[in-house]
Amino acid sequence: MPNNKTVVSQEQIAHQYEYMQFIARMNEDKAQVRGQRPKAFTQTFGCQQNEADTQRIAGMLDEMGYEKTDRTEDADVIVINTCAVREHAESRALGNVGALSHLKKARPEVTICLCGCMVQQEHMPDKIKKSYPQVDLVFGTHALWRFPELLYRRLTGDKRVFDTSGDAAGYIAEGLPVLRDGGTKAWLSIMYGCNNFCTYCIVPYVRGRERSRAPEEIVHELEQLVADGYKDITLLGQNVNSYGKDLDEQIDFSDLLMRLNEVPGDFLLRFMTSHPKDASHKLFDTMAACDKVAKQLHLPFQSGSDTVLKRMNRGYTAEHYRELIAYARSKMPDITLSSDIIVGFPGETEEDFEKTRTLVAEVGFDMLYTFLYSKRSGTPAAEMPDDTTHAVKQARFERLLKTQDETVQARQDAYQGKRLRVLVDGTSKGTEYPLTARTEGGLLVCCAGDDLKIGEFADVVIEKTSLRCLFGRSV
Questions:
Q1: Which CATH architecture has domain 185-413?
Q2: What is the Cα–Cα distance from 372 to 101, expressed in whole angstroms?
Q3: Annotated binding residue at 194?
Q4: What is the pLDDT of residues 42-76, one digit of tens each?
Q5: What gap in Å lies between CA 27 and CA 1, rounded to an integer?
Q6: Has 83 been labeled as part of a binding site?
Q7: Which one of 218, 237, 341, 404 has the largest count of C-beta atoms within 10 Å of its C-beta?
Q8: Is residue 201 marked as binding?
């Protein structure tokens, strides 16, 4: 079981359900007067964990009697779930909030809520209070489970409600409602927080310490997802390889995968994100042995320079990363590999950058997510000297993208003529290949075939390739 200090008691969860019912009754009265239910709008910035959090917020809003809307102008409650990992995401969120000032003036009764990682930063509540008077409710990552109570306070008289409390230990709140979008894909959080403190990263400061959900809770949620028809399920954590370190039970992430693989049903399990420091041969052996675990690995290396990796506090070397990839491929020759890279970290030299570019070319990734370094206030990297101009960083970024595209295209071309199992998940804009699907490795396939059905697995033969997509026909 998790540490009792981090688990929200069922009595506290029941208390939140009481607030949900209070608001639901208020909304029933409003619906009788208006002839329609009050509506709620949600928007998410940032990572998959944020998306999973928004689904819990949506579940609570649904329980409170709100109907979902995609239009802010129709909403009675607007919730924007924010990100703090990069400056761009923060600026976009605040820009959207600023645009809501006109809506607030026209409809003062609208409740505008801000939540998530951005607002958990120490300086942000005061900034919102002073510069964004249209915002009614602010709650941080540690107070998400108390959203019904906070919203009730706002609706029943409190002018503005701010709650970014909670210590770094964080919380695990089981039993809250979740409203997913349907379809084939689902997020399943297995842990929260991070203990790594990479020098560029704000996450440990806003998400708190690592805390693992009890394995039986995860198994139960997976069983429910499979029963509900989800077939592409991604296990989420800031560092899934640290799963179980805080539990009384002796269990690690590989053990959890083995347990989840035993759940009956036709589905695929993915996971993200893994940290090279904690990745192990045991993990790759387990992936190879589990038929329901996708042969897909997202393993961020960030830089190919040991000097930069040390300044980043990543805890591994480029050579160790290469060894991990070699072992993973020896166990799973068809594994799909992806990674994250930061270009322009403070102090990065041309030699450092070339080591990164060399590693990209050597490994041959299927997908890469490359970013220019984004300075985050409050992190050690923000105080590091940096005499490299933005123009130089941008030029390096573009050179790396060229190398990246060449390696990815080569990997894509290797699928020409191959037979792949895919999960059909939607429609495309094209007419020759009208459906979209994902391979076990997560690659996008536009496909065609009279026997293909959305939500079902099928075999296709790849007829064409491009940088971003494969094209296949059912067999």
A1: Alpha-Beta Horseshoe (3.80)
A2: 32
A3: yes
A4: 999 999 999 999 999 999 999 999 999 999 999 99
A5: 38
A6: yes
A7: 237
A8: yes
pLDDT band at 258 (very low <50, low <70, confident <90, very high): very high
**Whole-number pLDDT of residue 361:** 96
CB 200 within 8 A of CB 381: yes
Which CATH code, of 2.40.110.10, 3.10.560.10, 3.20.20.70, 2.40.50.140, is assigned to 419-474? 2.40.50.140
pLDDT higher than 80, residue 2: no
What is the residue extent of each domain of the chain?
4-163, 185-413, 419-474
The token pair at 50 is 């944020």
Q: Is 117 annotated as ligand-binding?
A: yes
pLDDT at residue 5 above 60? no
113: annotated binding-site residue?
no
Domain 4-163 has CATH 3.20.20.80: no
Residues counted in the chain: 475
